[in-house]
Amino acid sequence: MSIPAFGLGTFRLQGQVVVDSVRNALDLGYRAIDTAQIYANEADVGRAVAESGIRRDEVFLTTKIWIDNLSRERLVPSLQDSLKKLRTDHVDLTLIHWPSPNGAVPLAESLDALAEARAQGLTRQIGVSNFTIALLRQAIAHAGAGAIATNQIEVSPYLANRAVTGFAREHGVQITSYMTLAYGKVLQEPVLREIAARHGATPAQVALAWALRQGYAVIPSSTKRENLASNLGALRLQLDDADMARIATLDRNERLANPPGIAPAWD
Predict the structure, then answer these.
(1) Among 26, 38, 128, 218, which is least packed, fewest CB within 10 Å?
(2) What is the CATH number of the domain that holds 100?
(3) Catalytically annotated residues
(4) What domain count does the chain have?
């Protein structure tokens, strides 16, 4: 994998809440932190990383370019602004957060600007988020599969997203799963609770282990230190084929991240 298998997501976390979450995560052994321009928490994330005492080269930082900044003129300056907030001279991964609505900014233009940011040393890797098969195909055709580090998409036991994940796998593009716990909805799922009880695990660990076994990177978030610690147990949980088959039956194409006017036409 070109990116860490396990990291901390920071969506919806701001102020001291995100500072504490990042601090606790780093203290517990997390070494990948995911943020975005639109989260309005890059400065707090940067503060937490800087004050952690952990060397910058030991922390994998991801940020995402908002749709207002996808043009050639705005992308690099917006990323430079993100770097100032994050208190670093580079991030490890920069993603197009959402495809430009209605193609207002051509994808090729955004990818070329990302490539320029990488050439300037502002980001080590580039990738995309919330891309459909058609958009991912365009990105690969323009930049090359090897240049697209990941497609970060919503994947959970309730939304397996098999078409996109299958296409990405065939073309060597890593999948990063967000909302793997479906905003906590899967924690009450009887099938996951049953599997968890048999393994001496938690439903959250089962859902995360399900994604990890498929080769996805995961970025769960939490404001509680005990949950952050518990989630790491997914790395040690070995689900068998029967477990995976049972979880596969839960897919109901239930999508939670679908902002009107921004989301593409999903596969």
Answers:
(1) 38
(2) 3.20.20.100
(3) 39
(4) 1
